Amino acid sequence: MNILVINAGSSSLKYQLMDPDTGAVSAKGLCERIGIDGKFTYKVDGKTVIDAEPIAMPTHAEAIEAVLAALVNAKHGVIGSMDEIDAVGHRVLHGGAKFTKSCLVDEACKQAIRECIPLGPLHNPANLIGIEACEKVMPGKPQVAVFDTAFHMTMPAEAYIYALPYEYYEKDQVRRYGFHGTSHRYIAERALALLGREKNPEGTKIINCHLGNGSSLCAIKDGKCVDTTMGLGPLAGIPMGTRCGDIDGTIIEYLMSRYGYDIKEMMNILNKKSGVLGISGVSSDFRDLEAAEQSGNERAKLALDKFFYETRKAIGAYAAAMGGVDAIVFTAGVGENGVANRARVMKGLEYLGAKLDPERNNTRGKEALISTDDSTVKVFVIPTNEELMIAKDTAALAK
């Protein structure tokens, strides 16, 4: 079975053609600068065939046409015709409280995505554009929406409610939603398998650390999300590459009054100029920060220390919330590849029974047990695969 996985942004479109049963990716790439001066990249078996080639893409529909043309190209295509694509799976950022699982796209589904635009104003319109572009280019082809928030809809009320006047929850849907849900769900399944509990998740307690330029932690009990660090939007939680994470709301009023910022400018600061970039003044890339720290840059060290401290604190909080922990998992760019970063997060968590093995921890980008044999808490590195989860959901619903 061939599933085309689409992740549409406002001016970009990532794609993969994947077998949901084996996870094999036959082709992947990126359409960027849609509506400007379109650039098209296409890879087969991990090798770049087309590298940022200029292609006219005034809308996402032309981007989809470019993808399909490459996939069936006589020279470098991987399928004979468009008929070999069985269905299309779309990453959709925000499903609100309406969606607890993926769904086949129909008019009711699209309307619900539109109704969630106030909750995901940057992403949901682009996700919807991607869906409608595929409908235009591939009429009648089954399409599935996979929501980034869906996995977190099992949170209990005390975890998702904010201590605000209740009317904002009732009338305006202000609550914790959480993100990276497709990644957290994939990790939950893999961690349960590694624990030998995939068929019997009851009683298991897993903390997943999705650490990258965007970062979030998730407490997973009995295979289900019971808490996560991101909130109404992806700005909350631990500090990230450029996002501030949790801060005192008073700071916003204080800085706006002091410098005359309007809310748009203030939100730009919190989303794009804060995090480890804001503290260090160096970079949002953790590799740059490590290099700067080794060169004696104190602010780079402080930025990293803050990131590791807040991550470690969140792990401790989730262990308390679940009454213990069986496994701690590291995933995403920093989590999968940051050998020293993982060690610094874990330092001081021995009281939980989590002991890191330095030799096992010296691994990057592959699934591994990195805790000692006598560690009562298993510590894993598990590369995430959101696209595979999207492909599997799409295949199941399309059938």
Task: Describe, in plain words, how this protein is organized in 3D.
- Helices cover 38% and strands 19% of the residues.
- It has an eight-stranded mixed β-sheet, with helices on both faces. Strands 11-10-9-12-14-13 form a six-stranded mixed β-sheet, sandwiched between helices.
- The chain is α/β, with parallel strands linked by helices.
- It has helices at 60-71, 107-115, 124-137, 157-160, 167-172, 181-194, 250-259, 263-272, 275-280, 286-294, 298-322, 332-337, 339-346, 358-361, 386-398, and strands spanning 3-8, 12-18, 25-32, 39-44, 47-54, 87-92, 103-104, 143-147, 205-210, 216-221, 224-228, 327-331, 368-369, 378-381.
- A hairpin with a 5-residue loop joins strand 9 and strand 10.
- Helix 6 packs across helix 15 (386-398) and helix 10 (286-294) packs across helix 11.
The residue fraction in helices comes out at 25-40%
CATH superfamily placement of the largest domain: ATPase, nucleotide binding domain
Total number of distinct structural domains: 2
Shape: globular
Q: Class of the largest domain, according to the CATH hierarchy? A: Alpha Beta
